[in-house]
Design brief:
The chain is of the alpha/beta class. Helix content is 25%, strand content 28%. The protein has helices at residues 12-23, 49-52, 66-71, 129-138, 152-163, 179-182, 184-196, 243-247, 292-306, 370-382, 388-392; strands spanning 4-8, 29-33, 75-77, 82-86, 89-92, 97-99, 102-105, 109-111, 123-124, 144-148, 167-172, 200-203, 207-211, 218-221, 226-228, 231-234, 238-240, 256-258, 269-271, 276-278, 318-323, 326-332, 339-344, 351-357, 360-367. The strands form seven sheets. A five-stranded parallel beta sheet has the order 3-2-1-7-19, with helices on one face. A five-stranded parallel beta sheet has the order 9-16-10-11-12, with helices on one face. The longest helix is centred in the last third of the chain and has 15 residues, at 292-306. The structure holds flavin-adenine dinucleotide (FAD).
């Protein structure tokens, strides 16, 4: 019988695991460790409300209220780095060892850095509240800002920098913003949106060198163009904090490899959220997903598996982003599609794009149309078999009904 569960990492994956364990009736001891002193905040506002200045501090968007936290009856150890795990034992950086029957690693990731560009003032990454506050202080009106990497967070930073009055350039080796997660059609819509909002853009472009001795002053692109730059934001994704599992001998490959119940290759050790890389059924490539919804779903699966209960029903992947005045949502597997069509053509503010694979709905992207997205998420979860023609001609999805 499980008496004590140690959860390492107290952001959305770790906290949801704890909450779900209690909801499912676990009455034993739950230890929750985090290296940050105040880790219980949501990260999405870091690139949006906090950067723009609509929020002062990350704690204004708490993961849960003080009353909800108290109800969970957790043994919290914050400002406490876990430096190792062994069977039945968690080892803290102080040298203290804590016994636990099972462990859940929810250590997420850290901003990926580019060593070539470090060691200069004016170079920023964005993962934590401290990163966001430092970046906000640098985003003064008129500053020349270059965002390297036009993924979701990079585009959000560019949007916020423009709101703060900065002259902002997005640089990416890809052909359009957020290409990987939105697919080509919606990414090209986003390129127009970014441009109309005032972002300068260099796509298909790499950075060859950073100029400036102690403070960044300019960037040299691979094609020889020079961009002035006071603030460089390196937005090239995250590196998984998988060292604890690696050190204990678990299978790790840019993330901790887990099965469909988030079990690692070590008995009694689970991994959830951004740090986990799930093996595909049937031997396809394992995938690591960096979204709030994925962390929450995996936390629920882990809690159910720990207590020997049936797993929750599977759900399609889903994420949202707020940038350039748009609420953008994507659901399903847009990368798998062989056909796309607009259920509601994008008119500069709103739109719903459907993705199909083998004449079945496999994903969708919406712009300022959350209501239609809620329906599409349900359709995908149920696996409803409607023809592309029926869906593309559906007045409800077109927002007419
Ligand atoms: C700026 C930004 C904006 C985002 N916006 C969105 C969005 O709009 N929509 C969306 O779906 N997703 C968004 N995301 C992604 C989302 O925030 C992540 O998917 C989510 O935070 C993952 O949660 P996690 O708990 O797995 O990991 P993390 O949030 O990384 O938390 C891991 C925790 O583990 C702790 N930790 C790590 N190592 C140790 C150790 N050895 N000992 C003790 N503690 C440790 C860390 O301090 C941290 O608190 C955004 C991310 C960022 C950075």
């Amino acid at each position: 019988m499980i008496g004590t569960i140690a959860i390492i990492g107290a952001n959305v994956a770790g906290v949801t695991t704890a909450a779900e364990l209690r909801r499912l009736g676990f009455e034993g001891r739950i230890l929750l460790f985090d290296s940050e002193a105040a880790p219980l905040y949501e990260r999405p506002p870091l690139s949006k409300a906090l950067l723009i200045g609509e929020m002062d501090q990350a704690c204004e968007a708490p993961l849960l209220t003080a009353a909800e936290l108290a109800d969970l009856r957790l043994d919290l150890e914050f400002a406490t780095l876990v430096r190792g795990i062994a069977p039945g034992r968690v080892e803290l950086s102080s040298g203290r060892q804590v016994d636990a029957d099972v462990m859940v690693i929810a250590t997420g990731g850290r901003a990926r850095r580019s060593p070539a560009f470090e060691h200069r003032d004016g170079v920023h990454v964005l993962r934590t509240e401290a990163d966001a506050l430092a970046l906000r202080a640098a985003l003064s009106p008129g500053a020349e800002v270059v965002v390297m990497g036009a993924g979701v967070v990079g585009c959000e930073v560019a949007s916020s920098a423009i709101r703060r009055g900065c002259a902002t350039t997005l640089v990416d080796v890809a052909a359009a913003p957020m290409l990987r997660c939105l697919g080509a059609e919606a990414a090209h819509v986003m390129a127009t949106v970014c441009q109309q909002a005032g972002a300068d853009m260099r796509f298909g472009a790499g950075i060859a060198a950073v100029e400036g001795r102690s403070h960044v002053q300019g960037l040299l692109l691979e094609d020889g163009e020079r961009l002035p730059c006071d603030v460089l934001v390196v937005g090239i994704g995250m590196a998984a904090n998988d060292e604890l599992a690696r050190g204990a001998g678990a299978e790790v490959d840019d993330g901790i490899l887990v099965d469909d119940a988030c079990r690692t290759s070590l008995p009694g050790v689970f991994a959830v959220g951004d740090v986990a890389r799930r093996r595909a059924p049937g031997g396809g490539p394992a995938r690591r997903v960096e979204t709030i919804m994925n962390a929450q779903v995996q936390a629920r699966e882990t809690a159910a598996a720990l207590l020997g209960l049936a797993p929750p029903a599977p759900q399609p992947q889903w994420f949202w982003s707020d940038q350039f005045g748009l609420n953008i949502q994507a659901v399903g597997e847009v990368a798998r599609s062989d056909r796309v069509g607009w259920a509601r053509p994008f008119d500069g503010r709103e739109g719903v794009l459907l993705h199909f694979s083998d004449d079945r709905l496999c994903g969708a992207v919406s712009f300022n149309r959350g209501r239609e997205m809620a329906r599409l998420r349900r359709l995908l979860a149920r696996g409803d078999d409607q023809t592309p023609e029926a869906l593309l001609g559906d007045p409800d999805l077109a927002g007419a009904a």
